[in-house]
Amino acid sequence: MSRDGDIRRWKGKTEAKGEKRRKLTRRVKTSRGRKISSVRWLQRQLNDVYVQRAQEEGYRGRAAYKLIELDDRFSLIRKNKRVVDLGAAPGGWSQVAIQRGAGQVVGIDLLPIEPVDDVNFLEMDFTDELAGQAVIDMLQGPPDLVMSDMASNTTGHPATDHLRIVALVELAAEFAIATLAPGGNFVAKVFQGGSEGELLKLLKANFITVRHFKPDASRTESAETYVIAKTFRGRK
Ligand SMILES: C[S@@+](CC[C@H](N)C(=O)[O-])C[C@H]1O[C@@H](n2cnc3c(N)ncnc32)[C@H](O)[C@@H]1O
Fold first, then answer.
1. Best mutation site among 68, 109, 169, 170 for ligand 1 pocket (most ligand atoms within 8 Å of CB)
2. How many domains does the chain have?
3. From atom 8 of ligand 1, which residue's Cα is the shortest distance away?
4. What are the pLDDT digits (tens) for 56-86?
5. d(Cα 7, Cα 27) in Å, to the nearest integer?
């Protein structure tokens, strides 16, 4: 059965960022055969104002709005500069980067990505030792912005998951430090408690400013936030 066949619609009122707007509120009608967690996920997606906006505005996913907010606030995407999007699938952040004037964008992901105009994608693990050079070759120079919206797959074991999440962000920061042009910027998704200690030390040693910011488009109940490290000091 199609997704549309599964849902019942009715008009409801919601408040988004101070402005009252009407939206379609949708309820999953047929939950038979689905796990409770997947019914909740589907219901939340269907009612999510950013999911609806992404569909209307042609973005690959709601994540695009997180980068839009981050860029509005921290001016990360610079005109005609080179951008690397780590963990780019399905491509929302890459869409935003190229729309906002980046000169070249290379996205890298374990998964295949449908083409985006003027963006190149690499289907590979960014931790592969060949990834940094492959990205630089494709961009024809070092990136000015390395952005990462990656999250590792969870195992359900909280301590293991925490370690994997922290390790992934640290590897993304190391990728940035190994490839960025001097003066470049780094933005990455981190999880509560995950950007302290070693990662913060590493970023403060290599960038002039380090900040944290949780965009409105990031779900309140999610522990995710973003670390923004600006003005790379350059490799010694
Ligand atoms: C939340 S999604 C990114 C969404 C994206 N920012 C957007 O706007 O469409 C995270 C992605 O990170 C990718 N990823 C996780 N670990 C990776 C790795 N080691 N190398 C490359 N991609 C990875 C996953 O395959 C997944 O597609």
1. 109
2. 2
3. 92
4. 999 999 999 999 999 999 999 999 999 999 9
5. 6
